[in-house]
Records
---
Amino acid sequence: MRVDEESSSRDPPGLSPGSRNGWSGWYPIAKRVFDILLSLFGLGLSLPVWLIVSASVAVETGWPILYSQDRVGRGGRSFASLKFRSMRQDAEAGVGPVQAAPQDDRVTPFGRVLRSLALDELPQLLNILKGEMSFVGPRALRPMEIEAGDDRARNVSEYEGFEERCTVEPGLTGVAQLLLPRDISRDVKFRYDLWYVRNRTFLLDLHLIVMSLVISARGHWETSGRTMALIEPLRARVTWDLERQFGRPKAKRVARKAAGTKVG
């Protein structure tokens, strides 16, 4: 996907304009220092949660309590992403690398609790500390995966915009994760990811982290029909930008679906 070099002379209400050269100056240094400090703080604060979750997962599905998957990081390089196990141990037996779907019957009862609170991703604080991920960025994807509703595994590099998307570290949260349903097409998710890549700023990162913490506290990551006043200014801004790039009808349809269905 070609990066649109045309700068906008107007900005929609709700949020200040982003920067298309966000990696210049102090931003990358501040982002990395922030990731290190917040991940260390999070690991220390969440130690009791690690113990409770570890014991619960061990009782429900046995060992190992963590699972590691190859994910695509910055520059297209693979890294081992860590998560608490939220699916049964034979989740991919006979089906392959299928993307999790809403109400996926492979998810265990305790796994649904973990996913609703985003606690299954708590071990990714270690990935952030190591510099393989950031708190904010596009979702870390598997190199090959079968999308929900598809019948074949596709290499993530086949999607338009892959190379530009890989110019930043994948994130624990991000624009597509917050605004789009899990089962919407990856082509659409990549457009939202590219919007972040082209508009990222430190203030936007902080805004996304705050919104994500609120959703986690409310247990709404796996809830359908979720709307929040905190999210609407961002949704309006992204929709406005995508309307200019892809046309009003298509962007509006995506925005309406995102506002009324499950977050992915």
---
Amino acid sequence: MSTENPSVRAFKNHRLGCYTILRGQQVVASARRLRLEDVTFEIRASGRRRMLETGQRTLHAYARGQLVDYVTLADADRLAPIVGRRADYDPRQGAFFFELESGEPIVGARFAQLDESGLWVSEPRYLEPARAA
């Protein structure tokens, strides 16, 4: 990982209707569209459990990766869609992001784009099935 471009975390900010990009604890931007490279999808089990128990949204699922580009709420749209597959996260379905078409759990991707239509991934990395002991 380059020290010039440390990884960021991005999550859907339902209250603001956009995505929030964090570097450490600092907000980098609020974006309507963003692209990450070398992405890992992360879920905090305690936050997911609290959301399921209370029904209140919690910040517990996000994408972590290298920030390639983003479009703020005020910017003209200059970020073309990526060629990839639709993906999503639903805490009621499980503790993982998944490819929409196949339902297969994914843990990351070469590229991910978060935009108005949701999450798109290119070269997804799938969750490996549990190995028999």
---
Amino acid sequence: MEVGEGSGGGFDILLLSCRRETPIMPDRVQCLPCKSGSIPSRLRAASTALTSTACELAARMRYWVRFGRRNACVEQDYVRRRPRYADVRARSQCDVAPRRRRSAIASYVSNPGPTGPALAGVSAAGTLSVPTGHPVIVIPATRRQAVLAFDDGHEIRINYFLPAQNNHIFNEADFFKLHASSADDVYAQLVRVADDKVCATIAFYETGEKVFTSPKRGTFGGLGLNCPLDVQTVEQFLSKLIDYLKAIGACEIDVKCAPFSHDLPLSSLVTNILLRQGGAIASHELNHDMQVDARPFLQRIDYGNAKRIRKCLREGFVAEQIDPSACEGAYRVIHDNRERRGYPVSMTAEQIKAMVNTFPGRLHFFAVYSDPQKSRIVAAGICIAVSRYILYVFYWGDAADMGPYSPIALLASHIYEFCQREGFRLLDAGTSTLAGELNHGLIKFKRNLGFSESLKLSFVCQV
């Protein structure tokens, strides 16, 4: 089956048929609008019988199916390897299908008879053969919504995406929507009922085999407070959310937390809660960052880097912030630098541009030129405003022939001055360990630029 262009958003589409070998005819496969989700604009099916192991997909999804005039909303628990045995159950709340039709289709799906229904998954942005063949109506899966009781004044809302203040970027609703791919992905907000104010946020992504991780992409995830909360409320929020993940089938919960320097009291509290919830420390990395204050950068670094900055300025080097539209030249310098050093480049230039479009004003680009005419970029940096007060150096690097000048020092100086002007309180230069192992050269480099160590923990909770 081939899915055409559309706004499927990366979610899965499910087919449910009562036969296994009848060809799916293109003119008999239809799409119907779904109240809570978007669908691809075109859906074309092969006119011959298709075979595949698609029924081995085991993601839990929500979807709509139609048999003649009967509709139902059902949930996939799991799909066994033999396509004719698809184990599904009816969803108890169905606000579209009438009750009498819902019960009829639930009975039909649960007791399909000797031939059995066949169930298969199709990516909303690609091609996948399916082992089914019968005229069906195909609707994309949508993220489940839920409201969890909390206390008299608050409740936990799952996938409601209420507007919120003070989120770090990896807990923004737009970031979640950019990377969500499963109907079981969870965007949880602790909400004050009286005025719908969001008090805390955390996102979990179902990455397969019922493993939920926070984040799926990004340097960290975990809990973020949108306003001050007492210790008991924080603990209750995390506890109830972990119980909810278990209830929807989680077998493992992974949390990569922010460095302790970002919010020492919150990091300490979350560590205590997760350990008491049965979590274990999965990784322990050293992060390097710098508190931004009124001191000049030259007063915070070692003599060698101060000397390099003066040499670059004397030779006519120019450091400046550049417009995101001109980021490709900066990206090339960074890409080449990381390739030479054997470090992975986790995002392409196109993905960086997509981030710029999704989060205007949150990505900042810097460059060092070798002359006042700005004929060549010799060092570059890409920084992310993780929050209102924290700037994270996502990438930086210099050109291969810049060893005698080390323009990274001048670049760091300019980024630090940018933080001073824009009111950032912390400049985060990222981790200097891999799987806990110290990179002594990188640690020395960052220390000489004025950065200091902070602990960054990840946790795993086996259910």
---
Amino acid sequence: MATLPIFLAAAAISGLSSLVDPPPLVSIVDDDDSVREATSGLLESYGYTTAVFASAEEFLQSTQLASTSCLVTDLRMPGASGIELQKRLTDSGHRIPTIVLTAHPDEHMRSAAMKMGALAFLTKPVSEQRLIASLEGALANSQTAKPAH
């Protein structure tokens, strides 16, 4: 998607930068370095901005929390799980469209994630097309994370 950076540069040069929305920020939370980096690289190749986190705690304490448009999280991680992360976000008033990834699909966990508001529950290794389709659907049907007042 080389046209997006060219378009943004042209808009900035012509003074239209205020009219161009920045690409959505997708935060990726996974304890596996290789999964984080591969997912980030894939999403950036589609024009998304990404932020990566090794744990739920790291994401919850980050400055990117409020600007995250979509969350892609692993289900099983040391410390807080992806479902626990969803619960903590909901309890703190943040409504972030969430996609849960897991290498250990389990119907009970899928059901729990969906009840907590996950928009997709995908099994690793997830296909590029399925992840991008889920991400596009999550962004189309939800708002950027904002504290509920």
